[in-house]
Amino acid sequence: MATKKTDDVFSLASFDPAKVTETFRDFAEKGAAQSKEAYSKMKTAAEDATKTVEATIESAQSGTVELGLKAIDALRTNAENSLSHMEALLGVKSVSELFELQTAFIRKQAELAMEQAKSMQEATRKIAETVTKPGKDAAEKAISGFKKN
Known about the structure:
Blueprint: H1 2-10, H2 17-90, H3 95-148
């Protein structure tokens, strides 16, 4: 009897082409749906990446302009101070007055250089944060998307 049941299972009489076709159709439909979903996710990810790159480039450009303007301002201030110092040196009446003016100028320029360096450093830090923010936000969004799945 056991032999007969095995023969029935593998016999061509129990083969139903409609079931195979239906199974294949279900498999193909599921594959197509998964492919569409994967394409949609990849398209969204590509669009998000493009937006992130555009935002990063825009931030970098505006940051570069800001740093350039700060540098020009520092150069202008230093040039004006140097010209004022040269004018003051033209009116010197003694060597001691010359040393006093020169010492005061050097001290003032050193303090100014420190202020300018701090200002540039702070501006650079803020620009770096602004430039990296879109990428950081995109990475956090991607990570949270993986956690949900």
